[in-house]
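Fold in tokens:
===
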Amino acid sequence: MRGLISQSIGIDLINYLPVPQIYSIMARHSLDARHLLCPMPVIRTQNRIATLTPGEVLEVVATDPGALMDIPAWVRINGHRLLETRREGREVFVVIEVGES
């Protein structure tokens, strides 16, 4: 059908189809904040995010149990997006998408 339409109007419709935004690839970074005590995991997260561009993803690994609450609070206050939090043994993981701030 597409071939018939493109032949009848004289253009190639494939070149005019929109590309979905879901195909954009975001860079993923990691930050090792293990063995640091409060407030250092938050400070290191803040410093690392300052070097990234909006849309990039940062995964923070920490051993301070407070980081599981402190980093997500900082993320919300500063306009970023919290993608995931989890605990695996003694380590906590916080995954952040960098916002526009």
User: Anything to note?
Assistant: The longest helix spans residues 67-77. The CA atoms of residues 12 and 62 lie 53 Å apart. The longest strand covers residues 81-88. The mean pLDDT is 84.
